[in-house]
Amino acid sequence: MTQTITVIRGDGIGPEIMDATLFVLDKLNTGLQYEDADAGLVALEKHGELIPAATLESITRNKVALKSPLTTPVGGGFSSINVALRRQFDLYANVRPAISFPNTKSRYENINMITVRENTEGAYLAEGQEVSADGETAFSGTRITRKGSERIVRYAFELAKSTGRKKVTAVHKANIIKSTSGLFLNVAREVAAQYPEIEFQEMIVDNACMQLVMRPEQFDILVTTNLFGDIISDLCAGLVGGLGLAPGANIGKDAAIFEAVHGTAPDIAGQGKANPVALMLAAAQMLDHVGQPENAERLRKAIVATMEAKDSLTGDLGGTGTTMGFAQAIASRI
Ligand code: ATP
């Protein structure tokens, strides 16, 4: 059966990087079909809603979406459309690879790690948050569950197994936050015991940050709770040259959404200056997910070769190329 992908072109630089990505995917002969769906500002203008029911229905039906960045207007009823989509489809695993690319300004070469962040609970649910009437005290609750911890740690180990990775590091603060972080760590230990062939390491989050900056090559897969994962995955993106090269997947039991990590970059929108690689790398994650790992690898190799040759690189990578010119250079190496 032909697999159809819901394509959300998004706002700002979204349509440009999506055109570039679909152009490159076309060269891979994936056999995938694409169905356009609107979300964000463009959806608000066209349909009067930030996430129209037809878009939700398309993702529900296709189970896989490739999504450009979206603008969440202030006062739009959501704090973030991305967060709303993650909640709607219970996309519990945020999977962010950080891989070194040639000719990028970064402190390290040969980094190859993946952060697996729990996406649905923890500090970001901010349960019962309030500020007292006199403005002197603020409160926000953190809930961690056995189920939430179990499925995210299991996801990390299964990812290690399926990609031939050797080590999973659970990042926590159980020495101080004994309740919530303690539960996460205990569950991580229980799950790890079921995967004796994969090395398990525990690391306190502050030490993990220092180790990531000093000796990032020691890490393979990191798994952690929502807040720590948000911070650590951006730290990892910084280690390999910034957000223009950082893809992310949001994966649940019944749906998965693949995206670039960066925002809509309104400062360069519509100018053909945007780097499309983050979304292309998200598309590579998508190809892995739909059972086309060979095509995912071909795409990644073509990106690496193009960057090695410094062919048509965009401004953020020190070149003078355009979004589509860069895509053509990558496509020519597939
Ligand atoms: P948003 O409000 O949607 O998060 P933002 O501008 O605050 O937008 P980003 O979109 O992540 O945040 O952009 C931060 C900076 O990085 C901007 O200067 C932007 O031009 C640049 N940038 C982001 N993505 C890219 C890209 N794909 N190619 C080139 N530059 C980018």
Q: What would your notes on this structure say?
A:
- With 334 residues, the chain is α/β, with parallel strands linked by helices.
- The mean pLDDT is 95.
- The protein contains eleven helices and twelve strands.
- The chain is globular and about 55 Å long.
- A hairpin with a 4-residue loop joins strand 11 (247-251) and strand 12 (256-260).
- The chain has helices at residues 14-27, 41-47, 53-62, 81-88, 146-163, 180-192, 205-214, 226-239, 277-289, 293-308, 323-331, and strands spanning 4-8, 33-36, 64-67, 93-99, 112-118, 122-131, 138-143, 167-172, 199-204, 221-224, 247-251, 256-260.
- Helix 1 runs parallel beside helix 11, helix 7 runs parallel beside helix 8 (226-239) and helix 10 (293-308) packs across helix 11 (323-331).
- It is 40% helix and 21% strand.
- The protein has a ten-stranded mixed sheet, with helices on both faces. Strands 6-7 form a two-stranded antiparallel sheet.
- The chain starts with a strand and ends with a helix.
- Adenosine-5'-triphosphate binds at residues 13, 69, 71, 243-244, 262-268, 274-275, 278, 316.
